Structure prediction request, 330 residues.
Amino acid sequence: MRPFDYVQVREVATAVAEAGADSDASFLAGGTTQLDLMKDGVLRPGRLIDITRLPLGEVELRGGSLFVGALVTMEELAADPVVTERLPLVREALLRSASVQLRNMATIGGNLLQRTRCRYFRDPSVAACNKREPGTGCAALTGAHRTHAVLGTSDHCIATSPSDVAVALIALDAVIHASGRDGDRTVPLTGFYRPPGDTPDVENVLKPGELITAIEVPLLPEGARSDYLKVRDRASYEFALASAAVAVVLDGAQVMTSARVGLGGVATHPWRALEAEEILTGAAASTDVFRAAARAALSGAQPRPQNAFKVELAQRTLVRALETVTGVSS
Prediction:
């Protein structure tokens, strides 16, 4: 591991100032992925700014939204009574993300910034990874890519976004609150992640030295039904091959008056399936409608030989999730 300086901070303004003054600095919170990547030589910060003592560990209900401090752990948020009652899809996404030990360490802010599990990104002995070393190429294009993305890809990167909870949050129109040298700002989560394009090393819209301070999560309407379904290679904690976060509101005639859909495991960033939502909203709940919505959600997929199965798998995952929350049986 490369030697680095270490500093602790207790105020957001100090953290931002420290990071803004050093382009080689990185924030440290739970560190459950970050430290592994540093040990492997993938990340090489010259300075770590420990933010674990910042006052960002509260969950507050403000009107119709839940404000989650960036340092709230995954386990703390999963146990929150408001999440349990009004945002079950968020709770399920958190519980299916990792073991209890990891959930007690990993923070919500860190989870949203979680780096891909692409083997080529995480192995410095492989030269071709545009995300790790811009301009070197993408070894996954012609190498092993069974777990890689089929949506949002480019000729420069097909790495999959790993976060489960981000899939649920993007379906809920969550908003990122951030603080930086230019002050505070908010960014809708739907506009937070950047598709790889020709700069896959730039994964989000955070400015240098900018810090996520909170996530604002609008509550679902009373009576809404939601779930997070995750399909993976093994029943123990594993990253998704395909996942679906869904929330619907049904009237007395089983018509979906609103619908929200997020997809995971199949895209380069948490994927909001607006095409599916358009088909579902205003339609009577039925398997045929769900299948049409699933086809629309995957209509832009660009699979490769080893991951072509993900197109059908994602469609089936979405259909099953919708059947579960509506009570429709195929």
